[in-house]
TrEMBL record:
Domain Glycosyl hydrolases family 2 sugar binding: 18-186
Record-given protein name: Beta-glucuronidase
Cross-referenced Gene3D superfamilies: Galactose-binding domain-like, Glycosidases, Immunoglobulins
Family annotation (SUPFAM superfamilies): (Trans)glycosidases, beta-Galactosidase/glucuronidase domain, Galactose-binding domain-like
Domain Glycoside hydrolase family 2 catalytic: 293-616
Annotated GO biological process: carbohydrate metabolic process; glucuronoside catabolic process
Sorted UniProt keywords: Glycosidase, Hydrolase
GO molecular function: beta-glucuronidase activity; carbohydrate binding
EC numbers for this chain: 3.2.1.31
Coiled-coil segments on the chain, per record: none
Keyword Chaperone tagged: no
Length: 623
């Protein structure tokens, strides 16, 4: 896939153009995979439905076969390629096509992409007719396998219909779930950049930068400027690599975000500077935050000071849109998190939209950025039947599949490359999560972890901490992979999946016994709870409590918090989940997972008030 300047977050500048292709597109399922043979890329989709982009397709229709559809499906629209953009490189940028896509323009294949949660761009200059309508047709596919992120299986019903078997606990929403844009970038262009930060005791800072370009002629100048929030240029430099010295740096901090605009300009060095465009060949800008992140002893340090993470695991999930980008819901979620006193979240269980991270940057939220490596555990029923260590299951785990060390590893590394490239400059990203709840108790997981962590360690110039989230079945003493992580992230459900209800005191004892063990096994690392929660049906009240009532959710949370507070090595708590969310149907879920502090339509359960009280208690934690 190309990275020719179109993968940077899209913007219009003096030299760049873009046009949204969002709106109503034509849509059609293709269960027999006949579309290409039948010429749909050239002639368009016969008998097409009308659907919105961006959105998941699943909850738009009224029949079950459409909601559950698994296989190939197609989208089609038309766009005019403006003739004034002829001298630029023209790209189609898909912010997310879930889970894989092949793109055709006027019948010509222009590119493909694997992975449903990171953007890709395809160059279309050779396929378009300028100033005319062009047919854009995209084939998507949402099948799951051991080499898809997220992982699962694709089965067939007796009548031959394909059916998804997710190894994960969220609905397998699919489609063009984020914006699609036509983008024009100069042939000589900025294609990416990185920064690292050095803070000094006197309040000054150095921003070390590198800029990636293509087609840069030796006679041209690459100018880099740093501009503060009132519009003053505070530092400038030239060249593809350098330093920006800031005399009085306003640091980006947790819930106290200060952003600088970093501006890259390629200036014509051939004496054209008097031209109408001022000799500007390309211009791109972004917002960065000056801050450092470090794990030392048993703490996560932001700008050298310990932070305590308060917040949530979340999902991009809402009624009708499914996983389709819904900026009103995103905004509401930030308001809910702020109301609770949260300062952090994890992008469980896939990279969230770029708009979402930009909001986090501006709001000063700390983000654990997770790749879609979820379901690395052969379990179709959440983790109830997973990680069994009996004879029947031994040697049949996810990592024992020989394809995993080859195909899955390859797809996973590529997904990490894309995630790190997309998100490396967000100040909000303070840690990378490389997997959610893999079968880390199995011996076969160890070489896989080594390969993935070694790879990820090469990707981030800021060397932010790397982690994965550990599941309960790979508890202290059973997990074989925690040595790879910089921070130990635990997903724990004592008092829900085990020893729930009246047995809560037993759950607490078992929880503390496990924590005591962890303190010995990992004496030097900080711990974050990346999940803890209890399913709760909003509006169900019981005195005394029973499981699923709002009262029980509160009792459960209180118990968890007592355990966290007993271990100084615990430096964060992210409750599962901010909101109720949709999952596949089954006996474990009542129209979805109900562990939200808020309902799916974003109204509070009693637990939300409990969190608000705890997280707004200024005496409790530093950050
Ligand atoms: C987990 C998973 C998450 C589930 C959650 C639950 O451990 O990471 O995806 O939704 O448990 O509610 O069971």
């Amino acid at each position: 896939m190309t990275n020719d300047g179109a993968l940077l977050y899209p913007q219009v500048t003096a030299t760049r153009r873009m046009q949204s292709l969002d709106g109503i597109w034509r849509f059609r399922f293709d269960p027999e995979s006949e579309g290409e043979r039948d010429g749909w890329p050239e002639t368009g989709l016969p008998d097409a439905a009308q659907v919105p982009v961006p959105a998941s397709f699943n909850d738009l229709f009224t029949d079950k076969a459409s909601r559950e559809y698994t296989g190939d499906f197609w989208y089609e629209t038309e766009f005019v390629a403006p003739g004034e953009w002829r001298d630029k490189d023209l790209f189609l940028r898909f912010d997310a096509a879930t889970h894989r896509a092949d793109v055709f323009v006027n019948g010509i294949p222009v590119g493909s992409h694997e992975g449903g949660f990171t953007p890709f761009a395809v160059r279309v200059n050779d396929a378009v007719r300028w100033n005319e309508a062009n047919r854009l047709v995209v084939r998507l596919n949402n099948e799951l396998s051991h080499a898809s992120l997220p992982a699962g299986t694709t089965g067939t019903l007796p009548d031959g219909t394909k059916v998804s078997g997710p190894y994960f606990d969220f609905f397998n929403y699919a489609g063009l779930q984020r914006p699609v844009r036509l983008i024009a970038v100069p042939a000589e262009a900025v294609t990416g950049y990185t920064t690292t930060y050095e803070l000094h005791k006197d309040g000054s800072a150095i921003v070390h930068y590198t800029v990636e370009t293509r087609g840069l002629r030796p006679e041209d100048t690459l100018r880099v400027r740093l501009i503060d929030e009132v519009g003053s240029v505070v530092a400038d430099a030239q060249g593809a690599e350098g330093e920006l010295a800031v005399a009085y740096a306003r640091l980006w901090d947790v819930r106290d975000a200060h952003l600088y605009r970093i501006e890259f300009t390629i200036l014509d060095g051939t004496g054209n500077a008097a031209a109408a465009d001022g000799g500007v060949i390309d211009e791109y800008h972004d917002e960065i935050g000056i801050r450092t992140v470090e794990v030392r002893d048993r703490e996560i340090l932001l700008n050298g000071r310990p932070v305590y993470l308060r917040g949530f695991g979340r999902h991009e999930d809402s009624a009708i849109n499914g996983r389709g980008e819904n900026l009103a819901v995103v905004t509401r979620d930030f308001e809910l998190m702020k109301w609770c006193g949260a300062n952090s979240f994890r992008t469980s269980h896939y990279p969230y939209s770029e708009e979402e991270l930009r909001l986090a940057d501006r709001e000063g939220f700390l983000v654990i950025d997770e790749v879609a490596a979820v379901g690395f555990m052969k379990s179709l029923m959440n983790f109830l039947d997973a990680a069994k260590d009996d004879d029947e299951h031994r040697g049949r785990g996810f990592f024992d599949d020989p394809d995993v060390m080859t195909r899955t590893l390859h797809v996973h590394k590529a997904a990490l490359d894309e995630l790190f490239t997309r998100d490396r400059n967000h100040p909000s990203v303070i840690m990378w999560s490389l997997m959610n709840e893999p079968d880390s108790a199995s011996e076969a997981a160890v070489p896989y972890f080594r390969a993935i962590f070694d790879h990820a360690r090469t990707l981030d110039p800021q060397h932010r901490p790397l982690t994965y989230t550990n599941l309960m079945m790979a508890a202290a003493g059973r997990d074989r992979c925690h040595g790879f992580a910089d921070v130990i992230c635990l997903n724990r459900y004592y008092g829900w999946y085990v020893q729930g209800g009246y047995q809560l005191s037993g759950a607490k004892a078992a929880f503390m016994a496990e924590m005591d063990r962890w303190m010995q096994i990992e004496p030097d690392k900080p711990f974050v709870f990346t999940e803890y929660g209890a399913d709760t049906a909003a509006g169900v009240h019981k005195l005394p409590s029973v499981q699923w009532s709002e009262e029980y959710q509160c009792e459960y949370l209180k118990m968890q918090h007592e355990v966290f507070d007993a271990y100084p090595a615990v430096v964060g708590e992210q409750m599962w989940n901010l909101c109720d969310f949709q999952t596949g149907e089954g006996i474990m879920r009542v129209d979805g997972n109900r562990k939200g502090a808020f309902t799916r339509d974003r109204q509070p359960k009693a637990a939300a008030f409990l969190l608000r009280e705890r997280w707004n208690d200024a005496t409790r934690h530093q950050a």
